[in-house]
Amino acid sequence: MPLITFDTAPLSEEIKTELIIKLTNLSSEITGIPKESFMLLIRELPDQNIGVGGITVKEIKEKLGRK
Questions:
Q1: What's the number of CA atoms in the CB half-sphere (13 Å) around residue 45?
Q2: Ordered DSSP codes for 1-61
Q3: Which of 15, 26, 43, 60 is packed most tightly, with the most Cβ within 10 A?
Q4: CB atoms near residue 41 (< 10 Å)
Q5: Which pLDDT band holds residue 67 (cuts at 50, 70, 90)?
Q6: Tens of pLDDT, residues 19-60
Q7: What is the DSSP letter of 67?
Q8: Which of 31, 18, 15 is nearest to 3 (CA)?
Q9: Domains, the chain, ordered by start
Q10: Torsions phi, psi of 63, nearest 5?
Q11: Contact at 8 Å (CB) between 10 and 49?
């Protein structure tokens, strides 16, 4: 059973649903493995646990005025 793992900052339920559908369908199309065989795991990490360019995503969002 193929496993797709997607690590990310917190996402809305709508985005997670779309990711599950589209990543599963695309992976099935590319590999020829039936989509019913795929398992997809979304791991949400807190913004303060993700760093880009030496600062946390939390700090980046604060600088941009976003939550």
A1: 12
A2: --EEEEEES---HHHHHHHHHHHHHHHHHHH---GGG-EEEEEE--GGG-EETTEEHHHHH
A3: 60
A4: 10
A5: low
A6: 999 999 999 999 999 999 999 999 999 999 999 999 999 999
A7: -
A8: 31
A9: 3-64 (3.30.429.10)
A10: -65, -30
A11: no
Q: Is 40 exposed, middle or buried (0-12, 13-18, 19+ CB in 10 A)?
A: middle
SS3 label, residue 66: coil
Secondary structure class of 64 (helix, strand, coil):
helix
Strand partners for 42: 6
**Both tokens of residue 1?**
């059973």
φ, ψ at 9 (rounded to 5°):
-70, 170
In the chain, the amino acid numbered 13 is E
